[in-house]
Amino acid sequence: MRDLMINQLTCYFISPTGEEDRIDKNGDITGQKITTYTKPKKFMANVSAGKVGKSLTKGVSVDLFGSNVQYSRVITTTEKTHGICKDSLIWVSQEPKMDGEYAVSDDAPYIVSENPAIGINTVSYAILARSQQWQLNENA
User: Fold this and answer.
1) What's the domain range around 55?
2) Which pLDDT score is estimated for 92?
3) What's the Cα-to-Cα distance from 71 to each of 11, 43, 61, 63, 99, rounded to whole Å?
4) How many domains does the chain have?
5) Angstrom distance (rounded) from CA 115 to CA 84
6) How far is the C-alpha of 14 from the C-alpha of 111, rounded, in Å?
7) Looking at residue 136, what DSSP letter applies?
8) From CA 87, how far away is CA 127, in angstroms rounded?
């Protein structure tokens, strides 16, 4: 089954490429590392309204990414060569704020929380609202 264009939203993503030393305003290395990302790339995808799970019988459900994965929404696309991976940052229905030719990573509302679920015709990505990610990290 192919995606219907009418059901797709415009999304953007950046993927992590590595880490580099953080430099303070005086040009000195702080000892902290910051994640570096690719330039933002645009793609079209179906985006769920919320977390999905198919109920088979009372009290039993099947979750696409497993029962222990934290995510808020699912993005599904038929394009398998995006380059989206776990920890990629996602913008849904909005363009990223730019700093030169790179996106401001703090601005991204979603992060890919699990490796993609790759099917015969589609790829699904579990995305977590970053506000929820920070709450999960504080509670850990």
Assistant:
1) 5-139
2) 92
3) 17, 20, 16, 11, 28
4) 1
5) 9
6) 10
7) H
8) 9
